[in-house]
Design brief:
alpha+beta; 2 domains; 10 helices; Alpha-Beta Plaits; globular; binds adenosine-5'-triphosphate; 4 strands; four-stranded antiparallel beta sheet; binds magnesium ion
Length: 200
């Protein structure tokens, strides 16, 4: 009886918004193919519930590789700054090499190394789709430098290379895989690697 006297609770709000599905470009780089990690890598994205909507094995031309790693001035600056920060934090490179270079120049050098890396053998290009796909794929892939990537991530579980290993041989960090890092770069990269009709 007493319950009739209680004020009526308002109904819970209905949330109509649903996260929009995103698409993201993933490349298994030549070291990933050579080491037979394709099944393992694809399995990780499938198990988390993402959907594979395009895939092809590509012998990458230098032109395509340059265009892929030419995301504009900001990319050169960012990569260059990351390299300088890495050397500073580790107390390396006092006055020579990277410390005296402009970040943009370093970015250009890394771009050249990346082109050599991406054209060294076949690459598996894919588009994965799902809510928050861009962030989820980056989380599964892990940080750029495998020696800093935590266990459980692709780069942390299957690679170990540091910037120093790579730079001492004047080449890119071999980190098995590429994944788009923002909606804008995902759009540009998917258009660069796939024709519309190749995407299911
Ligand atoms: P990716 O774009 O390949 O997914 P990422 O977004 O984690 O990698 P970026 O900063 O975009 O990292 O760098 C692109 C690629 O350049 C890296 O995957 C790596 O192979 C190479 N790279 C980045 N920094 C260095 C460096 N200091 N020395 C050598 N190679 C580097
Ligand atoms: Mg990147």
């Amino acid at each position: 009886m007493a319950s009739n006297l209680l004020p009526k609770k308002p109904p819970p709000p209905t949330i109509k918004m649903k996260p929009a599905a995103e698409q993201t470009l993933v490349l298994i780089k030549p070291d990933g193919i050579e080491r037979g990690l394709v099944g393992e890598i694809i399995g990780r994205f499938e198990k988390v519930g993402l959907q594979l909507i395009a895939a092809k094995l590509v012998n990458v031309s230098p032109d395509l590789a340059y265009r892929h790693y030419d995301a504009g001035e900001e990319w050169f600056q960012n990569v260059g700054k990351k390299v300088q920060q890495f050397y500073r934090e580790h107390g390396l490179d006092k006055g020579e090499a990277f410390a005296k270079m402009e970040p943009r120049e370093i970015g250009k050098l890394v771009q050249k190394w990346n082109v050599d890396y991406l054209t060294a053998g076949p690459v598996l290009a894919m588009v994965w789709r799902g809510p928050h796909a861009i962030g989820i794929v980056r989380k599964i892939v892990g940080p750029t430098y495998p020696d800093q990537a935590p266990p459980g991530t692709i780069r942390g579980d299957f690679a170990h290379e540091s910037v120093l290993d790579a730079n001492s041989q004047q080449r890119s960090v071999h980190n098995l895989i590429h994944a788009s890092d923002s909606p804008a770069s995902a759009k540009l990269e998917i258009e660069l690697w796939f024709h519309r009709k190749e995407i299911i």
